[in-house]
Each structure stands twice: as C-alpha cells, then as structure tokens.
Amino acid sequence: MGEISLKLNGKLETKDVADNTLLIDFIREHVGLTGTHVGCDTSQCGACVIHLDGVSVKACTMLAKQAEGSEIVTIEGLADGDELHPMQQAFHENHGLQCGFCTPGMVMSAVEMVTKNKNISEDEIRKGLEGNICRCTGYHNIVQSVKAGAAKMGG
Amino acid sequence: MNEVTKIDGIGSSVRRTEDKKFLTGKGRYTDDINRPGQVQAYFLRSDVAHAEIKSIDTKAAQSAPGVVGVFTGADIAVDKVGGPICGWVVPCRDGSSTKEPPHPLLAQGKVRFVGDAVAVVVAETMEQAKSAAELIDVDYNELTPVVDFVNADKGAQIHEEVPNNCYFDWELGDEGATNKAIERAAKVVKLSVRNNRLVPNAMEPRSALAEYDSLDESYTLHTTSQNPHLTRLVLAAFMFAIPESKLRVIAPDVGGGFGSKIYVYIEEAVCVWASKKIGRPVKWTADRTQAFLTDCHGRDHVNDVQLALDENNKIIGLRVDTVCNLGAYLSAFSVVVPTILHGTLLSGQYDIPAIYTNVKGMATNTVNVDAYRGAGRPEATYLLERTMETAAKEVGMDPAEFRRINFIPKDAFPYQTQVALQYDIGDYEPHLDKAMEMIDYSNFEKRRAEAAKRGMYRGIGMSSYIEACGLAPSAVVGALGGRVGQWESASVRVNPTGTISVFTGSHSHGQGHATTFAQIVADKLGIPMENVEVIHGDTDKTPFGMGSYGSRSLASGGSAISKAVDKIINKSKKIAAHLLEASEDDIDFKDGKFVVGGTDKEKAFGEIALAAYVPHNYPLETLEPGLEENAFYDPTNFVFPSGTHIAEVEIDPATGVVEVVDWAACDDFGNLVNPMIVEGQVHGGIAQGIGQALLEDAHYDENGQLLTASYMDYCMPRADDLPSFKVGYTNTPCTHNDLGVKGCGEAGAIASPPALINAVIDALSPLGVTDMSMPATPQKVWKAIQESQSVAAE
C-alpha cells in the first residue's frame, strides 16, 4: 500500500492504494469516476484513454503510481461546465456514438490528435484512431465527428 | 406547434437526446454501479475442452484471504437451481424433436468447452477471488474433444441425450420438386461455402450485480441484457422457481449487444443465487478473454448449394444442405437461428419455384453458438448471393442483369415463397439501379483498367439481400416451435402538465430509442419532443416486453407505442367533446389541437391532459379520469427490408491486402423515423460484415483451445480498415404496421459479406480465381494469387 496524489480534472486526489493498482482502477474504483471504461485486457480497445499531462494514454496499461504528481483529464473533465467541448459537440452533431461505451476513449483520443494536428486529414484521422475500437458505428460518423471537431477547434 | 412538429417529427434527423450523458462520462453501465457491502465473483473455468471431473478440492481456496464463499456444481444441485433453457426447438426429419441436454450453472461431472464454469469464488476483492481460484484443484479425466463440427457425428459423444452429437436434423421445402428441378435443369451451379465463426464483441463486457433483500425475500439484478423482462422470466420461472414479483431486473445503459446479450448466462444466475447464500451483493464483470471464451459466438456454417437454371437462365430450383456448429450447450435461440431464421430466407429476392433445405445442428466442445447481428439471415444471404454471382459468371451474364431477370416482379406482392414466408411488399429493381448509379457501375471497367496500370487488381461485387425481421407474429412463432410470444408492449402516460412518459418493453443499447420513440409520440400528438421521456430497461417500471433483437424495436415496439398513443388520442377526443360541448364525431385532432370541425372552437392537448387529472368539468359518469394507456402489439407478419449493396475493392498482389475503396448501400426500410440514426445502423452493420469478410475468425485448435481469445489475435475492424460509405434508400412502406416501417439494425451485416467476397473474386478473376473463403486475409489472398500464377506458369 502507498499514498498516491495526482490532479484529476483539476482536483487533487490523494488515495492510499495497493502498489499494483492500475491507473484505470484508481480512477474508477478509488475516485469513483466511471466515465472511463475498460473494454479489453490487452491495451487494444482504447475505451480507457485519458489525458496525462496533455498526452493521451491508455489508463489500463499504467500503474497509478506512475501517474504520481501528474495532471489527468478524463472525459468528465472535458466540458466547461454545461458547455460541451467542441469535440463532444461534434460527436453529438454528427452521430459519432451509438452505445456510448467506446465514446469517452474515442473523444479523448480525438482531442489530443486534433490538438497536435489542427488540419488533420481523413486518412490521418483513421490512422490516428487505430488504437480505439468501436463496434457500433463503423467509424464513418466518428471520422466525420473528428473532422467537424477539428474545424470547431480552429483547424 | 406546426413548426415544432416539422423539426422533431417522423422523418427528421433529430440529434440524439441520449448523447450528452455518454459524451460527458455520465453513462451508467452495470460495472459502473456498486452497492454497499458488495463482494466480487470470479469463475474458475475449465482449461480443457472435454473431460470428466474426477474431483474438485476447494479447501485451500475457502480459507484464502478475503474469501467469503467457494461454490461448485454440487452446491447448485443441492439447491435445485435450473440451468439456462432453449427458447425455440424444431422437429427433426425422423419425427423426433430437438435434443435438449441440461446446462448446469456450474459443471456437474463433466466440462464441455474451454471456459465452462467449474467453480465460483466470491471474495472481498476481485484480486482476492482470482488468487483464491488458483488454489482450487480440479482433477480431470480428459476425453477426446470434438472440434470439427462437420464430422462431429463421428466424435466422442458430448451429451448422453444427444446421439451422434446431432441436436437436430431439420428440413424445409419440397425435396421431390427441388430434386426434379435440378435433374431437368439446363445448368446446375454448385457451390460450397463456409460461414466463418465470429465473436460478437460488444465493447462493454458482460457484467452482473445481484442483491438479495431478506426483508421481503426479493432480488435485484443489474445486468447487461437486451431484454430484461425475458431475463427475469427465465431466472424466476425456470431457474429459481420464484414469483417474478420477487425479482427485479434492471438493464441500465448497455454497451452494445449484437445478439450476445439476449440470453440468460450462467454468471447472472450464479450471482443471483450467491447473493442470497452470502447475504451480500455479488458482482461479476467479464474481462475480454472471458468474453471471448464464454459469450455466445455467431455463424459457423458450411453450406452445399445447388442452383438449377433453365435455358433462359431463370432459376427453377435451389437446394441447400447445411451443417452448423451449435457448440457445447443449446443457448436460447441456438436452434431457431440456423433453421427458421435461415431456411425461410433462401428465396432471397428471387422467384424460385422449388426450394429445399436440410440443416443439421451439431454439438461440439466449443462455446455455444447463437444469434449474432443478422442471425441466420446473413448465412442465407451469403450462400445465395455468392451463388448468384457465381452463376452469373458461369452463364456469362452481368451479375446485375442475372439478378434482375430472376427478381420477384413488383406486381407479384404479396409473394408466397416456397420456404414458408409471405413477403408483403417490395420492389427490388429500384434499389439495384440506385446502388449501381451510386457506385458508377457502368464505368467500372475503366477503373479496373486504370488500377491494372498501377499493378493493382480492382474488383466489384454486389449483393441483393432480403431479411425477415420485426419479430414476429406470435401465432406463427408458436407454430414454428417458438416457446415465447413475440409481441411488444408500451405504456404511454400523459402527465398532468401535458408532458409524456413512454414506458417501452424494447431495450436500447445504442439504437437511440430515447430519440426515435420520442419522435413518434411528438409527431402523433403535435407536441415538442423535449416533452417526451422514454423509459426502458427496468422490470419494475416498464410493462412486460420482449426486448430488442431481430431488428424489431421500431416495427414491433414502435408500433405498440403508436397504438397506445392512438388510444390516448381517442380518449382525449371524448374529453375534448365534453369540454367543447360537441359530439365526439365532430372533433378533429390536428397539430396538437382538438378542434370542432368547421368552427374555431378548440382545446390544446395540454388542456385536455389537465382536465383528465383535475376532472372538475369532466364526463366522470362515462369516462375514467387520468390519461394513460397501455398497448400490446402483435405483428401480423414479419417485415421484409431489402436492398442492394455494392463493394469495390483493390488488391495489392505484393501483399494480398484487400482495400475496400468504395461502398454503395441502397436499402428499402420502408418509412424512416430518424434517417440519421438509420444511416448509423447501416454503417455499423456494413462494418461488421466487412469484419466477417476480411478480418474476423474465431479459431479453435484441434484440442478445443480458442486461439483467438483477445484483440491481439482476433482481428476487429478498425477505423483504418474501412472506407466511408455511400448510403441511399428506396421506400415501399410496410403494409401491415401503422408506421409503415421495417427494420434496419441488421441489414448491413446481412448484405455486406457476399458483396465484398464477390468483389474480391471479381478482382482476382483475371487470374482465374473463382472462389475465396471468409475471412479473405492477406495471406489467403496472396496465396490464391501465387497459386494462380504457378498454374499459369505450368
């Protein structure tokens, strides 16, 4: 056991957790933010993508201990109060989600991708989302959403 | 009011009302829910495919840290808890019925697939439960596993009750007439195809959280289900023998289903059972490997096809002999999927005067096989549309023209097929024409030539599919061996302020019912959509309903809502007549207002609602107060969506990689309530079909070990595997429901695999390639290219 402190969506969270606690379990079980999901055990599906110090990472594949002192943003921390982040709004307007399970990871990946590359092409979006699996949408509308989100984010 | 109706009503691509919670991380899936005092369940699963259990020693596990209980099949047997049941059986050719072996919740005496649950460990934490499970010692006497389902009849017998490992040997159609047609045919086209085994892979793994309340001796189960009422019925009536009122089943937000969350699985039942035994809430959530090992798989057929043509290339007969793999135990709809939902679709869009099919359903030491998006209809469409394309090439006709001359003519509806179904309506040439136009079919050869200059093989392939969905007329279901009704229910409650609560028996796990159903109600009542709330997924709140599968939610569930709203309107007219001192017959309802015909006397819908709940001026002697109506809708026929999909591919001979470069889908779903949502369903269905055709294959080795049990090994379609899709529609409204709607959920998955494989074969046809099995992986395609070149060199 050991104490871990990190900033989660702007709020300092300090929890006493087992040394082998994964970051995803710290967020879901210890803090109780369940918007970030677990869809596989092999770092393949991307349902657990969060931002760690501005970089999108799969929270199922790192220990909470490794995130000590970092700033984390999850899907719950993306909107500005009641106002959706432009990428969230774009997913809504372009029907970029169906069951919603992969959506948090998909949106978090998209935001980072577009932040790095404002004039992102369809091909780059498709390649960029390679680490996020969606079973519902066939990706067509997700790609449209990311394009629209990029435009809203100033691309 | 008019304006609002136009924005929100039927036919508008209204953005989904359920989106915001999912986009902000506020979705509430089963694993997101925790109860005070909750403990975790972990299932010890068999790592061998077929064995007798000589002994199980749980002593060390019992005393491991954090463990509150370890249970085996013996404990379940003492409490006489039943196992999952088969919801539909069929008669066999020899007059016997489907063989139904028992499926114990935890193995009793024998394990029958890798993943079969042997024991459950319940502990304070999942980690403790897993660690303790490692201390359980199971002594197996291994038996020869049966994996090859085509030869399963020669393998070791898996169940005492299932001789030759054959659950059923079923037939449909006129064998004599079909064989005669084949004998007298000018040409018989023969094809053997395999429909590869798939894992549904909803992104949310299955999960269950059961809680027992000792005060009123009742249970609450949160679970990942497409049909909470069916789950409650099966658990209460068949497994635990308790009144339904003592079990509340809640399917909260559910992260995709695709068929895999229809059935009651053993884990749900064990959690319910253990919650009472232990006296604390018990939770179980599958990891992805458990999902691969234990979720019901889909497809897994081999089909031998003979298509008889006359001298004018008209089809005169079709014979299909099928063997399918149903796995270790019969699941709820295992039997109906490859029989009724498959054999009855063999006429496709074609006028075929004689059809016969025989289907043998085999037991193997693999996990159960049941419905996966399309369920039987993709298998029928695949074999038929592959055969149509092969036949066209063999007789030297353009595949589109060959289909055209064999289509059921549009003036032949209602059309009685030779395989039990009567199609109410359809018109097939328009969607063929439109799909061809969308993909610029007439200029394809130019594109092929241009690709050839770049050293690439380009091909085009089509598929004209039909499906029977909107399950289903209950009497027909009963006559065909179904053990449930297939109606749907709705309750529409008008609140005193005029807002509406709609309680539906359907369940949404991505389909957008909160939006679509609200559109129907808003449109019919002429009120803003935001005044309509849709409630589903909780047996304590919603009327008994059959749930969502088989593209039935709108056609059956939507029709029930429509019917309940009609009752609301009828009662409202009576109230309006009273308030307006007019005869009920003179009241017209339009745009949310009840108007006395030919006058300016009117009452708004909200005023009627208020009068119903504050009945001071109200015909109480003839009419009850309140405004709430229930409806149960039992369809009079299936609905029959149809369409044509055309795929265009390019193959790189150096790598064998098939790139899908274009896709045109033109579907006839009848009237569309929300075209945006329909289009999303089509996209998702096509993606799953492309997955089947190019990437996905659940593969067991000869020992019955699932080699593809993670996303590292089972190839899921990803964004860079797929193109964008062109989607279009034609419309022949359904004749037997008020909304004129068909179903759209499964169409993409049904239509796409044959279109894609036809395109791959077409691309390689200059090399003499005439066949390709699914999935057409780079290795398989590359090998086909190499082999054709070595044949050419010889």
Overview of this protein structure:
With 155 residues, chain A is an alpha+beta fold. Chain A is built from five helices and five strands. Chain A has a five-stranded mixed beta sheet with strand order 2-1-5-3-4, sandwiched between helices. In chain A, α2 (86-93) crosses α5 and α3 (103-116) crosses α5. Chain A starts with a strand and ends with a helix. The mean pLDDT of chain A is 97. With 794 residues, chain B is an alpha+beta fold. Chain B has four domains: 2-27 and 487-633, Aldehyde Oxidoreductase, domain 4; 37-143 and 204-255 and 261-294, Alpha-Beta Complex (Aldehyde Oxidoreductase, domain 3), CATH 3.90.1170; 145-194 and 298-417, Aldehyde Oxidoreductase, domain 4 (2-Layer Sandwich), CATH 3.30.365.10; 424-486 and 634-794, Aldehyde oxidase/xanthine dehydrogenase, molybdopterin binding domain (Aldehyde Oxidoreductase, domain 4), CATH 3.30.365.10. Helices cover 30% and strands 23% of the residues of chain B. Chain B is built from 21 helices and 28 strands. In chain B, α16 packs parallel to α17. Chain B is globular, with a radius of gyration of 28 Å. The model of chain B is unreliable at 1-6 (pLDDT under 50). Chains A and B meet through α2, α3, α4 and α5 of A and α2 and α19 of B.
